[in-house]
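Posting for a labmate who doesn't have an account.
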Amino acid sequence: MSILEVQHIRKSFGNTEVLKDISFSLEEGQVLSIIGSSGSGKTTLLRCLNFLEKPNGGVIKVKGGVLYDSADPATQLESQIREKRLHFGLVFQSFNLFPQYTALGNVMLAPTLHAKERPDYKQNKAQITAQIEAQARDLLTEIGLEDRMDSYPHQLSGGQCQRVAIARALALKPDILCFDEPTSALDPELTGEVLKVIKGLAQVHTTMIIVTHEMAFARDVASQVIFMDGGTICEQGPPEQVFGNPRNERTKQFLSRYNEDR
């Protein structure tokens, strides 16, 4: 069974249709790279999956359970959105760290807020907080920031901020980790350190969706690749097929421009 099934998702802003009948599935442990020119709908698709935007049509399933169905109002209740977002961890292109919190505080924040909803939180606050802090320290250590846990975002480089953002996205143990152009705000030197972390996650079979303009990275890390253009999926397949022998003419044109710019 697929861990994620996206069926006929549509999204419009006013009279502009941004996503047009998007369908795909993702198996557990796979990495899906989504490529395409700016304005093709890639980021909007991620935002719909994370319920930062509400689709106008379609179905989203995780582990066989229906998270959203445009034909079923019971799946569209605002009160359910926070719980549904727990299935997805989103890493934004501009970090979106809270400046008033340290690296450790940023990673602890979401698990702490979630823990406060537990009926035993007040009674076991110290123990629960200690567990959350230990997990956050482990995550920051895994991404190479064991010596920067007490630093605030303004004291960190862009690459370090993005690594904190990755640790924060992992803190609630999501089923699927999503990246929205995670290196677009970084210079080339810092891009490498972030891509190294993402490749490490791929090697331990973390299920991921990565929107990226880094074609070589997309080809190297992906199990499957989707090329989007004009709000539609023009081509989907394994990286060796999409990059090595694309069938769609728009895919060929996009990749030829990339090859010319290299």
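Reply:
Got it, the structure tokens are right above this. The mean pLDDT is 94.
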